[in-house]
């Protein structure tokens, strides 16, 4: 097969399109949503079972500081005293390096940190014509 400028251009366009699809599939695919939902669920389950240490390990640093500031205790001790919702089946949406997991009228906001998700805010309830109001807020 003889290569012409047109076939080289077509080959380049097809290769570029395949690369773009592969990259966007990895960054916004189902597994990313599933991973975000699993992190939110694990966080809420840890709190529900009184494992503040494990739950705090899933928080971004500013959220850990928020827990300590509002409870006057260490993150591990203070987190279990907060009124956070119990885990529930919900839905997740991913926006690049940010995600929201919503269930039963509550939301958990997450941020991507390397290859993992970390909880940025939790126990969040929507407020009409305003941002969410969150029990834990590390935004």
From TrEMBL:
Region forming the signal peptide: 1-28
Keywords, comma-separated and alphabetical: Signal
Protein name: Subtilisin inhibitor domain-containing protein
Lineage, uppermost ranks: Bacteria, Bacillati, Actinomycetota, Actinomycetes, Micrococcales
